[in-house]
Design goal:
With 230 residues, this protein is mainly α. It has nine helices and no strands. Helix 1 crosses helix 8, helix 1 runs antiparallel to helix 9 and helix 5 packs antiparallel against helix 7. The two termini are 31 Å apart.
Length: 230
């Protein structure tokens, strides 16, 4: 019974996590695409001046990733329409690209933005006034989403990424690599979108359904519902 409860909690937790992050993915990519299009034009991703590439994520890799995703999506009506009617610029505008590329690419895009003003303006749309914190948070979301989407275990797992504490709002992570840290990031960002969501209540329901599984295995404390960020 104990083993079954652990497996079932993990399964339901993965499903709830994907649902919550999917909503954030749409909000974040929309905010970034809108801001960068207004600030730098609809083909901002082709303007190398607004980026500061790194050895880990260079412009060649960045553009190639977009080209590949657009090619895979060329069967979609809105992508095919652009490719059939325009050849300069050779890639569709930002609002089309947004529907093609992965959340991971948006995370990498934010990380290599050159202008601190661009980074801060986007982060502030989600109630975060420190760009480095927001960068670590959206990176965390992509990692957790990939774990959940590929049926990875969340119980007793140390994440391969550490979301930074946001001390301005009293959010401090004692166990940065725990699922609780990621869950707090999800809750805080969802609240900033003002969109309806049930993340906290979904978690409470899952925990109550499987009482044999200690929530400490996920990094949660007994008073987690009153922790900063929730």
């Amino acid at each position: 019974d104990h083993i079954i409860q652990r497996c079932e909690l993990d399964r339901e937790l993965r499903a709830a996590t994907i649902t919550a992050i999917d909503r954030l993915e749409v909000a974040i990519r929309t905010a970034m695409a809108n801001y960068l299009s207004l600030a730098h034009g609809p083909h901002w991703f082709l303007d190398t001046r607004i980026f500061k590439p790194t050895t880990r994520w260079g412009m060649g890799r960045f553009i190639k990733k977009i080209e590949d995703e657009v090619d895979r999506a060329k069967g979609k009506l809105f992508v095919g329409h652009y490719l059939d009617h325009y050849d300069d610029p050779y890639l569709p505008p930002s609002w089309v690209i947004s529907e093609c590329v992965t959340f991971g690419l948006w995370s990498h895009t934010y990380a290599i933005l050159r202008d601190p003003n661009d980074r801060r303006a986007i982060a502030k749309k989600f109630g975060v006034d420190q760009a480095e914190v927001f960068e670590s948070w959206i990176h965390t979301l992509t990692v957790v989403r990939n774990i959940a989407a590929h049926h990875g275990q969340l119980l007793r797992v140390r994440l391969g990424v550490s979301p930074m504490s946001y001390k301005t709002r009293g959010i401090r992570f004692a166990q940065q690599k725990s699922f609780f840290s990621a869950a707090t990031v999800i809750q805080y960002l969802l609240n900033q979108t003002t969109l309806p969501h049930n993340w906290s209540s979904d978690l409470q329901g899952i925990f109550a359904k499987y009482p044999l599984v200690p929530i400490t295995d996920l990094g949660f404390t007994p008073n987690w519902k009153t922790s900063p960020g929730w």
